Amino acid sequence: MQTLTLGPSGPTVPALGIGTWAWGDKLYWGYGGDYDEAALRDAFKAAIEAGVNFFDTAEIYGFGESERLIGRFAKELQQPVVLATKYFPLPWRIWGSAVADALTASLKRLQVPTVDLYQVHWPFDFLMGQPTLMNALADEVQQGRIKSVGVSNYSAEQMQRAYDLLAQRGVPLAVNQVQYSLLARQIERNGVMDAARRLGVTILAYSPLAQGLLTGKYTPETDTPPQGARRLDPRFSREGLEKLAPKVGLLKEIGQKYDRTPAQVALNWLIAQGNVVPIPGAKNASQAAQNAGALGWMLSEEEKGAIAQAWQ
């Protein structure tokens, strides 16, 4: 199993995790429609069986339901897992004690005394401010309820600021979780990737399959619309899919050489960038097993270059 340590001293995880935004989320993903708790339980088991035991969630996902489901599944299976969740900086959370309260609630839903990675979901300041926020997180590290600290959706400058504030307390910044896929490569150009490498901060890549667009499932020919709010995304329209078809075709062509799917090729390309852990979603056992198939093999330098050029 390929592994990677998050930040300089965070947990060691598989080079690929599972993102659980869709777990319990009815508003965007339509939880309870074409997938339910039983399907997610199967996805959890399939991921564990494939060696992928790193799960990323957040207090806001399904308004806590994602955390509750993961806590329940982990308890049932009694297998070691690495858990990451997130604190949402709501406007009325203006005191450092809000971090402790939110963490307490997340730990209760996850049914654990400590979490491996606790991240700030967005770089909002409002009235609390980053110094108060980072000090509150450092306090929780010292108390043992957080093993490592991360941020999410932070720019290069914001990440540097968080890194500096935590360093004053002797706490390393482990990760910056950002959108990163072949369809979303902004971090390669806006300084986030360079800053992360310089600071030793790991990139957690969310939406690494662009919400399914890189899987090959959605094509102009099949005309299978996605569920939930994705139906409103113009990229899933017939015209949008026609534009993507040649690029997805390249992923399919390269994948045939390795007996891999376009999704597995797209995920492998991200892993090959180094210091990147993609966290694709999985709503059933089949998707969890397919995600794991991105591990254990490597694209050639020529193939990585060809993919990068095609998806510029």
Automatic annotation (TrEMBL):
<dbReference type="InterPro" id="IPR050791">
    <property type="entry name" value="Aldo-Keto_reductase"/>
</dbReference>
<dbReference type="InterPro" id="IPR023210">
    <property type="entry name" value="NADP_OxRdtase_dom"/>
</dbReference>
<dbReference type="InterPro" id="IPR036812">
    <property type="entry name" value="NAD(P)_OxRdtase_dom_sf"/>
</dbReference>
<keyword id="KW-0560">Oxidoreductase</keyword>
<dbReference type="GO" id="GO:0005737">
    <property type="term" value="C:cytoplasm"/>
</dbReference>
<dbReference type="Pfam" id="PF00248">
    <property type="entry name" value="Aldo_ket_red"/>
</dbReference>
<dbReference type="InterPro" id="IPR020471">
    <property type="entry name" value="AKR"/>
</dbReference>
<feature type="domain" description="NADP-dependent oxidoreductase">
    <location>
        <begin position="16"/>
        <end position="311"/>
    </location>
</feature>
<dbReference type="GO" id="GO:0016491">
    <property type="term" value="F:oxidoreductase activity"/>
</dbReference>
<protein>
    <submittedName>
        <fullName>Aldo/keto reductase</fullName>
    </submittedName>
</protein>
<dbReference type="InterPro" id="IPR018170">
    <property type="entry name" value="Aldo/ket_reductase_CS"/>
</dbReference>
